[in-house]
Amino acid sequence: MFTKVLVANRGEIAVRVLRGLRDMGIASVAVYSEVDRRALHVRRADEAVCIGPAPSAESYLNPERILDAARRTGAQAIHPGYGFLSENAEFASACEAAGFVFIGPGPAAIRAMGLKTEARLVAKRAGTPTVPGTESPLADEAEALRVAASIGYPVMLKAAAGGGGKGMRRVMSQAELGAAFREASSEAERSFKNGAVYLEKLVERPRHIEIQILGDRHGHMIYLGERECSVQRRHQKVIEECPSPFVAARPALRRAMGEAAVRAAREAGYVNAGTVEFLVDPSGAFYFLEMNTRLQVEHPVTELVTGLDLVEWQLRIAAGEWLTVRQEDVKWRGWAMECRVCAEDPAMNFLPSPGRIEQAAEPNGPGIRVDSGIYSGWTVPMEYDSLLAKLIATGESREQAIRRLRRAIGEYAVTGIETNLAFLDSIVADTEFARGELHTGFIEEFLRRRREPAAATEPARLAVALAALEQKPKASAGPPAAPANRWLREGRERLLR
Ligand code: MV4
User: Angle formed by the axes of helices 107-114 and 116-125, to 10°?
Assistant: First the structure.
């Protein structure tokens, strides 16, 4: 096993990996940019190396700076976390070439799954169901028209080098295809310097359900169950849970998706922790979407329901150990639900809200885990993503997990910057959400319901106005207690207009 590992990341995931290293008695090295000098992950490491100024390109995205820090501290392995260089095949190669173990899959597997068209080919070869469509990029508009006609509208145009929805276009009819093809190609070119697009049959109202897999370097691979990630906004996950309400009601589906995920990962020669993403349609048919060759943000919900420590297993597998967990040993107990606490202002269209955190009082108590990268007095930099922490609640049932999550959100006090906590609470409190009838358009529909609630008829408006009047403070009392936060206040004011 390694005696010293460098964590090439920042924020909550760096803190999480550093905790794993300390739990295993492995010395740890953190890297930080100048603006992260006082960041929590720096405090949690045995050693810390400044790798450059704030811009990611000159720090967390700079392979040479990271390798140099590994050399200087005598680290034997590098954990990339997620984002930054975690899915960069060249960086994985550079680590190996420089004599460091890259904690993750080999560069070949990263490359095989990096191009969405290549990943589809791998899945198809493995017999994993893929959405009907093209395996290679479309040559031109004419081919797009031919293929779309043969698989039937509606179709989805996607960027071959894409991910996260960039360069994607829903095409409902032939008339729209030409323009959509040109727009998708140019957006793909701009975003990925690769304008290649391919085409798939559109899966209507899909759920985004992903399977966690773990494979060792001796050919042993298992699946650890699914995560429901359909509650997303602009392709950013907001709430994730394990198990999926849809799959929990269909035990055969978990096994079928798990085995399909393992087949695809084997075909890619996968090693270490990985996630295979699927679209699941309302009939329960599932289709390979893409594979993520890194530890995911939402890995804690799988850890809490299976009892397995994914970071520990990543390190043990990277050190060449056998994965001693057999598929029949994997059991799922209870429910885990995670929400991503972000420095953003829902009342300002989720604009990032960096700045000094006056107070960060984190929740605790039965069934609560907080993977946090913040503390009172720390200044959230503007240079990186807005994720502050992940709040995860577990329970015997989904209902208990939801109750605990709401209680914990209520305890979470972050002042000095805006956060999305109230927005998260409004989702978790939503009756539709409680029913578990989720799909990738859930938040879009939720926000629409909130903007134009069916009940916002005249009587309802009057009722709300009267209620506000009744709360009118007596002369002696102080100002009326405004709703818990700006987002709810604005929502109520909008309703009254
Ligand atoms: C799809 C789809 C429907 N049909 N492909 C979005 C980003 C990328 N991960 C793939 N995505 C989708 N691909 C077909 N053939 C719907 C989506 C999609 C989506 C998928 C997962 C999670 C959130 C999403 C939000 C919008 C669209």
Answer: 100
From the list 294, 316, 340, 404, the catalytic residue is: 294
Q: Which domains does the chain have, with CATH numbers?
A: 4-103 (3.40.50.20), 132-201 (3.30.1490.20), 207-329 (3.30.470.20), 335-496 (3.30.470.20)
294 is catalytic: yes
204 CA to centre of ligand 1 in angstroms:
10
Cα(305) to centroid(ligand 1), Å: 26
Confidence tier at 485 by pLDDT (50, 70, 90): low
Q: Whose CA is nearest to atom 3 of ligand 1?
A: 203
Task: Give kind and range of the element (H or E) at residue 19.
Answer: helix 11-23
- Give the other-Cβ count within 10 Å of 196's Cβ: 22
Question: Cβ(232) to ligand 1 under 6 A?
Answer: yes
Asked whether the predicted pLDDT for residue 65 surpasses 50, the reply is yes
Instruction: Give the model's pLDDT for residue 492.
Output: 55
Q: How far is the CA of 153 from the centre of ligand 1 (A)?
A: 16
Select from 301, 309, 220, 207 the least CA-distant residue to 253.
207
pLDDT (tens digit per residue) in 389-420: 999 999 999 999 999 999 999 999 999 999 99
Cβ of 239 closer than 6 Å to ligand 1, yes or no, is no
pLDDT mean over 122-148: 94
Mean pLDDT, rounded, for 144-165:
92
* Pairwise CA distance, residues 45 & 22, whole Å: 9
